[in-house]
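Hi R.,

Here's the chain you asked about this morning:
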Amino acid sequence: MLKAVKFGGSSVAGAEQFEKVKHIIEADASRRVVVVSAAGKRSSDDHKLTDLLYLCHAHLTYGVSCDEIMDTIEQRFVQIRDALGLSLDVEGEMARLRGRLNRDMSVDELVSRGEYFTARLMAEYLGFAFIDAADCVFFGYDGQLDRERTDRAVADALQANGKILLPGFYGRLPNGKVKVMSRGGSDITGALAAAAVGADVYENWTDVSGILMADPRIVDNPRPIEKITYAELRELAFMGASVMHEESIQPVKEKGIALNIRNTNRPEDPGTMIVGDAEDRGEDDRFITGIAGKRNFTILTVSKHNMNANHTLCQALEIMDRYHAPVEHISLGMDSFALVSGSAAMGDALYDVLADIRKTCRPDDIRVQDDIALVAAVGRKMSSRPGVSGRLFRALGESGVNIRTIAQGADELAITVGVDNKDFETAIRVMYNGFAG
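And here is the predicted structure, written out as tokens:
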């Protein structure tokens, strides 16, 4: 068994969190590949080190001294080192860093130092070999990851050292310069490392015990999702659930590696296991995996007697595309169809879209409904349970929620309903209590 593990910023925010990480690593000898983010906030009024480093670069850009910011960053690392009895020469390395600030250091290299120093300290604390991401995560000049070269370098590092620790978030361009990923890039590094070494499990340790079945700001104490497929996760993310970004899971998804989201502060919690397909999920009584939704959509309903639905729909979709108004859902009837698009994306183009549809499609009527929210029940077993849709609509109706539109994906992973914005939270609570609570 081999596990690759990634610890986020809140998991490495200070010496106390470092100690929790060490207990987690020592509890399972298979955790031999570790990736860490830069030290995050220790409290609500604290600062992430990455934010401070970006602020430092902004000061340099406008010719303002960033000495005070750099002092704060150095103190954070010194405090961790001294509290844990480590020997890293933080002061010496920070002095060399400061000496380059006004010369040849790019913003990417500067902000990557949060991960670099955090990883240096953690590697010493755990007794793992420190492997600089600049030496094993490679980009082309087009900004795309060189997966083959990266995989080989990470795998070789593990083979040579047995236990390795990498900083997340950055890598190296062909000219040797440091390049950072988008914010949250340490998740990508963790997934890359897991895929490179062929890990059996990729554990992503953060400050939550996995993915919840609904937004806790709307539903009181929603149940955690124990297992979910990558396809279900994608549906929930598409519908607005706060889950991991697609790019950050793609490397392990491609390799069929299970991803386990865990809580550093509650390591006894099993978290959420994300698996490749439905068979890996096992059987349980719950056929709804999660509930998610988004507000502020516009529905355009186009009606025309005896219309050629395919031809007219294609014309309407071309018009929507021309005005960069993405279509989220389509409902198709005998003499009508409805297009659902984000109101913000549609923006001021709405009246131009309507004018072009009238001119091109020559409909009998176009109806516009604004202030619409979409709410989806996601789950792989819904298609095999008779009466699910009827039960759903009845529950919403009994709660006074008017359904404006209905859609079910071709893969039958989600039933989506459109409701008025004002009924958004009620709809989520009704669907959760009726199917998942």
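One quick note: The first strand starts at residue 3 and ends at 7.

Cheers,
M.
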